[in-house]
Amino acid sequence: MATHQYDSQGLRVINVVLVGRTIASLINLAEHDDLKITVIDPETIDTAILAIIAAEADITVLEQYNERINADILCLVLATNYAHNQTIILSDKTPDFNQLKATGFRARGYITPSQHDKLVKAIRAVHDGEAWLPRRLVADMLNHFAAGAI
């Protein structure tokens, strides 16, 4: 779903919205001229959607556990109302099939604590049309699909 927007130096710019205050600390912006980062801390899913659309997000990064907003529901609502966007979820543990199913299979990436240093790589991969999923989750998905248990 790449938008192929370019900055004044001809670099491809990826519009990234970070939902939650702590995510921004994982990205050293000085090293990533190709990312336009917008940090939001919305009170509701509706205000999150409006801010994400206003930022013309290509990628939205959500914290799995947010006091005010259910990341799974926001991911599903975004996919339904703003299909241009792809979502990556920061999870505090390795996600399983049921977590992915809760997003309507719309999350395109999960970042576990051991992968925080790979967030920018995941953003670029998802922007280029790939998924960033733990191998165990991919195996779990294949087992569920093979068993017809979706």
Model description:
There is one protein chain. The chain is about 35% helix and about 20% strand. The protein is globular, with a radius of gyration of 15 Å. β1 (about 5) and β2 (about 10-20) form a beta hairpin. The mean pLDDT is about 85. Strands 1, 2, 3, 4, 5 and 6 form a six-stranded mixed sheet that branches. The chain has about 150 residues and is of the alpha/beta class.
What is this structure's SSE topology?
Blueprint (H helix, E strand, L loop, with lengths): L4 E2 L5 E8 L15 E6 L4 H10 L4 E5 L7 H11 L4 E5 L6 H6 L4 E5 L7 H9 L7 H13 L3
How many strands in all? 6
Helical segment count: 5
End-to-end separation in angstroms reads 26 Å
Overall geometric form: globular
Question: Key features?
Answer:
single chain; 150 residues; alpha/beta; 6 strands; 33% helix; globular
Task: Explain briefly what this protein structure is.
The protein has 150 residues and is of the alpha/beta class.
